[in-house]
Amino acid sequence: MSAIAIQPRLRPARVQGWMARGHESPGAMRRQDVPNLAALAAIQVSNALMPLFVFPYALSVVGAGPYATLAMTEAVMIAALSIVLYSFEVDGVARVVRLDWRREKAALSRVFGTVLWARLALFGGCLAAASLARPFLERTTSDLLLAWLAVPLSYALQANWLFQAVERNVFVAAVTVASRVGAAILVFTSVKNTEDVARIPVILGACYLAAALMSFGYARRALGIRLHRAPVGEILESLRHGWHVFIGSLAVILYRDFNVVILGAVQGDAKAVAAYSIAEKLVKGLQATMRPLNQIYFPKTLRKLGDGRRADRVSLRDVLGFLYPQFIALTAVIVVAGLAFLAGRGHLEASGRLPQADRIAALMAVMLPATYFGLANFMLGTAGLNHLGEREYLYRSILIVGAASIAACATLSATLGAEGTAVSFTLAEALLLSAILLRYNRRPRSTGTR
Hints:
Structural class: mainly alpha
Helix content: over 70%
Number of helices: 20
Number of domains: 2
Oligomer: single chain
Distance between the termini: 34 Å
Shape: globular
Number of strands: 0
Radius of gyration: 22 Å
Largest sheet: none
Strand content: under 5%
């Protein structure tokens, strides 16, 4: 998923206690952050590594043609997933952190129920759209797309936002890791030829659903959640409130995750689609290793910025203090991954486990700068501009960049193939970062609390 989402600004009167923990210095971490960081890291690592093993294996077994169809239907699934997630990964956390969840069980259950029923309604809409499109699609494409929809359903049921807000991530991390490992093992043991391609989304969807159901049960048992039917008006209000977040997230999905669909549409070259898809997954896997640090530094950044601030050069300096350690960590990950690739390159070529390895490596080299741009966009945009009252500016910037990126992707992909798609991937993140930095390029006020 995308690193950018537009964070709703918390009401100052309701979050004074939350902010009262103090202004940590950049890089500071409480002792109780450690188990949550480890759990969040386990979730992100498993989510990042599983595709890095499964999809290259799938390409080597089923071939470029079926794999291209698999990759393009997966991209459509990711768009459906963005619809199901809506804004609740952000809004849900913001609502729960205002509560004393150990005492306000009824309020916690109300938030949980509203999010759950809203997501299930959104999933129903996605399922209906896929069913209506079925007569117009090839049978293999339609079957793959419907099978993929089990993944958005699992995210509708698994309230990661809730566990993050109450800082109890260990159980959900355990079941998530187990499900991803189990899915990889099942794919390796049951997918052996081209005809088995449809098993891949079925296996992944079933394993994701199993983890989601266990997490759902844990939320009810350990957190005392009571499931009630949420009023329709409350569900609609939650959707209305999160509309800007959703549109921003969907725009990012379209320019970061839909590139493979655009490439397939304008090129029709299965090998190019396959090479780009694998390169994109590897790059996103590297970027995903930073998400636990994102999630740890996100609230710290909000506390550092405080209330009544605006986007200016002083605010930029404050956010950069939390960004630099993440740049260092990302660089270390990229260096280690690069050395591992160089060490195993000969084996990959000899075994045929990563077809087009050299082309994939070249595409990754073009796309790697986007990992730094994306990390900066999250901290300076989601954690920075949004909290500093620049939500509308960030929203408009994402939409403009998204539209420009889709046009650039179509043009570059048609003329340069997968290499052009890779350029557009990096260009989009660079353009968004430029727009964000432009907003910070203001002198600080001469008066006011800092």
